[in-house]
Amino acid sequence: MSDLLQKIKEKKSVISVIGLGYVGLPLAVEFAKVGFPVYGIDRIKQKVELLIKGKSYIIDVDEKDVKNVVGEKFFPTTDYSVINKSDCVLIAVPTPLQKSKDPDVSYITAAMDEVVKYLHKDMLIVLESTTYPGTTRELIAERISKYGYKIGKDFFVAFSPERVDPGNPKYNTKNTPKVVGGITGKDTLITRMLYEQVIEKIVTVDSPEEAEMVKLLENTFRAVNIGLVNELAIMCHRMGIDIWNVIEAASSKPFGFMPFYPGPGIGGHCIPLDPMYLSWKAKMYDYYNRFIELASDVNSNMPRFVLNKVSEILNKYKKTLNGSKVLLMGITYKKDIDDLRESPALEVYHLLKEMGALITVYDPMVNSFIDEKGEHRKVKVKKNISGNEVKKFDCVILLTNHSSFDYRMIAKNAKIIFDTRNGFKEIKSKKIIKL
Ligand SMILES: NC(=O)c1ccc[n+]([C@@H]2O[C@H](COP(=O)([O-])OP(=O)(O)OC[C@H]3O[C@@H](n4cnc5c(N)ncnc54)[C@H](O)[C@@H]3O)[C@@H](O)[C@H]2O)c1
């Protein structure tokens, strides 16, 4: 064990990061930047080829950083055999839901199918993918034990959840505290030592299950509170109260309140999915939670609420959704990023299309998307729009409040606006209707 600790301290331990996405790529680059030799393993050849050319496909990873380390300290590859030469393996593969909303851990299993071919003594494996409590022990530690290794003695296993917030200008991989929980105290110690080389603050817990639960608590907390505020927004709408003003004023309380904001639903790879991992696992213990299911229900009905609101608004102007020209502003799941995964805006698009609306999508962050619920065809997205073009729409719906939108120009030219994000907050106009 001391050998591995020493190697980590001297930044000589070889690291392999499996899965070079939103989580894995920043992590790999961060370790390479401080001098560790890092193999980045991804099964998508095109991603690996881009990285070898020094190109970044993740908005939070600076291309300059990739260029500086690639070929010197960072070696992207599709070849798992580099694990033979690796001391530390960090797994950051996707953990989606199946159609039945049960966890899909097949990506972790597939990564482990490869890793076990190259196991050796004094190796550390850390799982970073969000998952249900028990995954690290069941799918990684127990599997490795079958090869004769003693976890905590000649092999080390831990869970350390990724907390990256894509597009956040203040918090990045380096300054976001990292939680670590190993199978034994030694596994935690080694993992802590590794992350301390690149992350400012490490918080340790007593087991991988605790660390897995930390991540689920954080994201369930968000999903439930967003569900609550979405429900309050619907109530306020009926009562003629501006929810945004209410939240702003409530935020002046210096203790015991934290603002959450309503919107057209929740998206991304984390908030809509992670609570379902917890709810699924709890059922194995005969516990049927109510908060998670309720929040999921409220949040997933928000796109339909938007549809109904827009239909009401058009009705006032003696128009039907069928045949109306609608401009959707922002299609990504949150502002200032290019990620469309689980975006509620896509659901709004789909619902409007079903009703016969003639939709144009405007989003400077995206070129196109696949209409997965429709005919699976590529939908082109406008990256720019002029005032004259805006004038032609019967209704504009703001679904994602990118900072780069020219809100004044849109407000000046639009006939009517439904603002689901309070993006037009600086502009007072009767034609802007807020969620
Ligand atoms: N995106 C976020 O903001 C975020 C934040 C915190 C936690 N997480 C969690 O981190 C994990 C990864 O998420 P992500 O957003 O980075 O996903 P992603 O889809 O951006 O990246 C995953 C990468 O893994 C690769 N991959 C899949 N299977 C592989 C395999 N068997 N071998 C090698 N590569 C493989 C994919 O090609 C892809 O490049 C998930 O569990 C997610 O819930 C994500």
Structure description:
The chain is of the alpha/beta class and 435 residues long. The chain has 2 domains: 2-210, Rossmann fold (3-Layer(aba) Sandwich), CATH 3.40.50.720; 232-434, 3-Layer(aba) Sandwich (Rossmann fold). The chain is built from 15 helices and 15 strands. It has an 8-stranded mixed sheet with strand order 3-2-1-4-5-6-7-8, sandwiched between helices. A 5-stranded parallel sheet has the order 10-9-13-14-15, with helices on one face. A two-stranded antiparallel ribbon has the order 11-12. The radius of gyration is 24 Å and the shape is elongated. The model has no long low-confidence stretch (mean pLDDT 95). Nicotinamide-adenine-dinucleotide binds at residues 18-24, 41-44, 47, 92-95, 107, 110-111, 128-130, 162-164, 166, 269-270. This is Nucleotide sugar dehydrogenase. Belongs to the UDP-glucose/GDP-mannose dehydrogenase family. Residues 327-426 form the UDP-glucose/GDP-mannose dehydrogenase C-terminal domain. One of its GO terms (biological process) is polysaccharide biosynthetic process.
Termini gap: 57 Å
In terms of DSSP E residues, the strand content is 5-15%
Q: What small ligands are held by the chains?
A: nicotinamide-adenine-dinucleotide
For this structure, the quaternary state is single chain
- Give the helix level as a range of percent: 25-40%
Topology overview:
Layout lengths: L1 H8 L5 E4 L5 H10 L4 E4 L3 H8 L10 H7 L4 E4 L10 E4 L14 H10 L7 E5 L7 H11 L9 E5 L18 E5 L2 H12 L5 E3 L3 H32 L3 H8 L23 H10 L7 H10 L1 H15 L8 E5 L14 H11 L3 E5 L5 E3 L7 E3 L6 H5 L3 E4 L8 H7 L3 E3 L12 E3 L1
Helix pairs in contact: 8-10, 8-11, 12-13
Bound molecules: nicotinamide-adenine-dinucleotide.
The site of nicotinamide-adenine-dinucleotide has 28 residues, from helix 5.
